[in-house]
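> example.struct
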C-alpha cells in the first residue's frame, strides 16, 4: 500500500504542477479526480502512511483558531523606491562609485503580499507573513493551500526563501463574481483580495480562491554567487520563479527593460506595480549592506501614478497625535489604481496656498506611491469660484487656538489634553512598530475613549475583561484575547515603549539607539542633553525634545504608572558594556566571511562597542576584511586604517 500511495502522490503532484504552474495539463480532469479519490480512500484506510507532500493537504477544511506571531530568523527589509529615470541614475552612481563593473538583475514587482517559507530537511515547516520585517504571523496552514508552493523539496535542504503571494486576475474576477452573487462586498483589487484570503481562518476558503506565488530570494545563507543563479536554483527546487527577469549591464539597459514591462503590463495575468533592480553579484550585495530599513544594493522603480479628475466637495480638518491639523479633501468618487477614491490628502495649509486650491475646484487626484490618494493640482480652466477655502483658526477637536509656527508648514494644536491627540496617541502606542497590541486599533480606542475607560496609555494596562464587555462587538473570548495581548506587551524591550510614547522627533530608530546607549527609559530621562546629543545621528533637536518631554510632571507620573503596572522599562536587546574592547570605534566590514554571516559579524562588533558603518572614510578606525575584499580594503590601506580578519574578530 505504501508504494501505491507514494505513486499516487507523485503522479497527482506532477499533474497539479502541469495544470496550475505550466498551464499544460497532460490528463483529463476526470482522470485526475479518479486518482485523487483513490488516494483519499487509501489515506483514510492507512493514515500512518500519509505522505507530507500529499495533495490532499491542499484542500483545506480546517478551522484555525488564529495566527501566532513568528520571529523571522532572517529579517525582511523593505525596498527604497524610485519614481524617475534620474533617481535610478543616482542609485546606479552610488553603486558604481564602489563597484564600477556591476551588473543588475531586473524583476517584476508583483503587487501581492510578501511571504517567507522555511524548510527543514526539505519539508515545509513555517510559512509566514512579512509583518514588520522582524515579526510576522505564522500562516503555514493557509500557505499549504496555495498549490504552487512545494510541500516537500526534491532535495533534503534546510533553507528559508522569500517571495510574493498574489491573486491572479482570473481568480480575482471569479471571487468577486461569487461575492456579488452572495450579496457580499466585492474586493477592491487583487492585492486586497489576496491579503483577505491569507487572513482567513477557514483553510477551505483559502484553497478555493486559487492564490499563486513567485519566489525571488534565498534568505538563508546561499551556496550561489549571483541573484541569477539563486533564481535558477529556486526554479530547480520546484518554486515558481517569474520568467520575466533580465540581466542588465547598464542603467540604460535597465530603463529600456522598464519601458518593455510598462508596455506589456496590462497583458499580464497578474498585477504588478513596478520593477525591482538588484545588484547581481551577492558578494557585492554583502559589501554594500543595508540602511536601517532597506538594502543599498536594490531599488524598486514604481510606475507613474494614475491620475484622474474629481470635483472638490468640501474639506475636513483632523488632528494627529502630535497636534498637527491636516486637511483632507472630500471628492466626487473616481476609480484610481483599482480602488474607488472619494477622499484625498491636501497635506497642509501651505500646500493649499501654493497650489491655489479653492472652493468647488476640479482637481487632479493621484495615489502617492500607489497607496495614499492626494490632490496634485487644480484644473484651472474648470474653475467655477474665486472663493478661497476656509482655514480653521481653532482646533476641530478641543477648540483651542491653532498656531502656525514660522519653521513649520502645518497648523498645530498645542493643548496636551486635546481628545483627538490623546486618541491618536493611544492608537500609535498600540501599533505594530510600538507596543504591538493586536486588536487595539483606532476603532477600539475610539470606543474606549467614549466610555471614558482609558484617558492615557497607562490606562490601557488597567483594562479588564469586564471593561471590554461594555463595548459593542466584544464577547468574552475577544475581550480575553485583547487583555492577553495587553499583558504580553508588558514584556517588550523598552525601545518599543519609548517609540510608543510619541515623543516629537523620536522615531523607532532613535529609540533603538537611545536604549542601546542608556539601557533604560529612566536613565534616558535623567541623562544630560549633551550626552544624548552626542549619540551618532541623533543631535540636539532629539535631545532637547526628550528633555522637554521628561521634564513635564505628567510624563514623570506616566512613567511611574507604567512601572507600577508591570510594563518593562529596560532594554532587552544586545547591550554594550562601557569598557567594551571596541567602544567608540567606527568599524567597516568587507569581503566574504567564512564562518559568520554578515549580520552575525555586525552583531558581534556592536556587542563589543563598535559602531558599524557601510563605507570607509577618515573617520573609520578599523576594517574587518574577509575573502575577496575589494575597494574598501584598498581605500583602508590608502588611509592607513587598521585592518583585521575574521579570525581576529572571533578571538576578540
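> example.seq
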Amino acid at each position: 500500500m505504501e508504494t501505491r500511495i507514494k505513486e499516487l502522490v507523485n503522479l497527482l503532484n506532477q499533474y497539479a504542477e502541469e495544470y496550475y504552474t505550466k498551464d499544460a495539463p497532460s490528463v483529463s480532469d476526470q482522470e485526475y479526480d479518479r486518482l485523487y479519490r483513490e488516494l483519499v480512500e487509501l489515506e483514510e484506510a492507512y493514515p500512518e502512511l500519509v505522505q507530507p507532500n500529499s495533495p490532499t493537504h491542499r484542500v483545506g477544511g480546517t478551522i484555525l483558531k488564529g495566527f501566532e506571531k513568528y520571529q523571522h530568523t532572517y529579517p525582511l527589509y523593505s525596498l527604497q523606491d524610485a519614481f524617475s529615470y534620474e533617481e535610478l541614475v543616482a542609485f546606479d552612481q552610488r553603486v558604481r562609485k564602489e563597484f564600477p563593473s556591476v551588473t543588475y538583475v531586473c524583476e517584476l514587482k508583483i503587487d501581492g503580499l510578501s511571504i517567507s517559507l522555511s524548510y527543514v530537511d526539505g519539508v515545509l515547516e513555517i510559512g509566514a507573513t512579512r509583518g514588520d520585517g522582524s515579526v510576522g504571523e505564522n500562516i503555514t496552514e493557509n500557505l499549504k493551500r496555495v498549490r504552487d508552493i512545494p510541500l516537500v523539496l526534491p532535495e533534503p535542504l534546510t533553507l528559508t526563501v522569500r517571495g510574493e503571494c498574489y491573486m491572479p486576475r482570473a481568480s480575482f474576477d471569479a471571487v468577486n463574481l461569487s461575492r456579488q452573487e452572495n450579496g457580499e462586498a466585492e474586493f477592491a483589487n487583487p492585492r486586497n483580495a489576496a491579503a483577505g484570503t491569507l487572513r482567513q481562518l477557514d483553510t477551505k476558503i483559502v484553497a478555493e480562491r486559487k492564490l499563486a506565488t513567485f519566489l525571488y530570494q534565498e534568505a538563508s545563507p546561499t551556496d550561489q554567487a549571483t541573484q541569477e543563479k539563486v533564481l535558477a536554483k529556486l526554479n530547480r527546487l520546484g518554486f515558481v520563479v517569474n520568467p520575466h527577469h533580465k540581466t542588465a549591464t547598464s542603467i540604460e539597459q535597465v530603463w529600456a527593460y522598464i519601458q518593455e514591462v510598462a508596455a506589456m503590463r496590462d497583458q499580464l495575468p497578474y498585477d504588478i506595480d513596478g520593477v525591482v533592480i538588484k545588484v547581481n553579484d551577492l558578494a557585492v550585495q554583502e559589501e554594500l549592506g543595508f540602511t536601517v530599513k532597506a538594502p543599498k544594493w536594490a531599488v524598486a522603480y514604481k510606475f507613474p501614478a494614475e491620475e484622474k479628475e474629481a470635483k472638490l466637495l468640501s474639506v475636513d480638518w483632523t488632528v494627529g497625535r502630535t497636534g498637527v491639523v491636516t486637511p483632507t479633501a472630500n471628492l466626487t468618487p473616481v476609480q484610481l489604481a483599482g480602488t474607488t477614491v472619494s477622499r484625498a490628502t491636501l497635506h497642509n495649509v501651505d500646500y493649499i496656498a501654493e497650489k491655489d486650491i479653492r472652493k468647488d475646484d476640479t482637481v487632479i487626484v493621484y495615489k502617492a506611491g500607489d497607496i495614499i490618494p492626494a490632490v496634485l493640482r487644480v484644473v484651472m480652466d474648470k474653475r467655477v469660484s474665486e472663493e478661497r477655502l476656509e482655514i480653521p483658526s481653532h482646533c476641530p477637536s478641543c477648540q483651542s487656538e491653532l498656531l502656525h509656527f514660522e519653521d513649520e508648514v502645518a497648523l498645530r494644536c498645542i493643548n496636551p489634553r486635546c481628545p483627538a491627540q490623546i486618541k491618536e496617541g493611544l492608537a500609535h502606542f498600540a501599533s505594530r512598530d510600538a507596543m504591538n497590541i493586536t486588536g487595539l486599533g483606532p476603532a477600539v480606542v475610539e470606543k474606549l475613549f467614549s466610555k471614558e475607560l482609558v484617558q492615557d496609555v497607562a490606562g490601557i494596562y488597567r483594562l479588564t475583561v469586564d471593561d471590554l464587555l461594555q463595548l459593542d462587538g466584544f464577547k468574552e473570548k475577544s475581550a480575553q484575547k485583547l487583555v492577553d495581548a495587553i499583558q504580553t506587551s508588558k514584556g517588550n524591550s523598552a525601545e518599543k515603549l519609548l517609540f510608543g510614547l510619541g515623543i516629537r522627533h523620536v522615531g523607532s530608530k532613535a529609540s533603538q539607539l537611545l536604549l542601546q546607549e542608556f539601557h533604560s527609559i529612566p536613565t534616558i530621562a535623567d541623562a544630560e542633553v549633551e550626552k544624548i546629543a552626542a549619540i551618532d545621528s541623533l543631535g540636539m533637536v532629539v535631545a532637547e525634545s526628550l528633555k522637554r518631554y521628561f521634564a513635564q510632571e505628567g510624563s514623570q507620573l506616566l512613567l511611574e504608572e507604567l512601572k507600577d503596572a508591570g510594563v518593562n522599562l529596560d532594554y532587552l536587546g544586545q547591550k554594550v558594556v562601557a569598557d567594551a574592547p571596541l567602544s567608540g570605534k567606527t568599524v567597516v566590514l568587507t569581503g566574504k566571511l567564512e564562518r559568520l554571516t554578515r549580520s552575525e559579524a555586525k552583531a558581534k562588533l556592536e556587542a563589543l562597542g563598535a559602531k558599524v558603518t557601510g563605507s570607509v572614510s577618515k573617520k573609520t578606525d578599523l576594517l574587518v576584511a574577509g575573502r575577496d575584499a575589494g575597494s574598501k580594503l584598498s581605500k583602508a590601506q590608502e588611509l592607513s586604517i587598521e585592518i583585521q580578519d575574521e579570525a581576529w574578530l572571533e578571538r576578540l
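> remarks
The mean pLDDT is 87.
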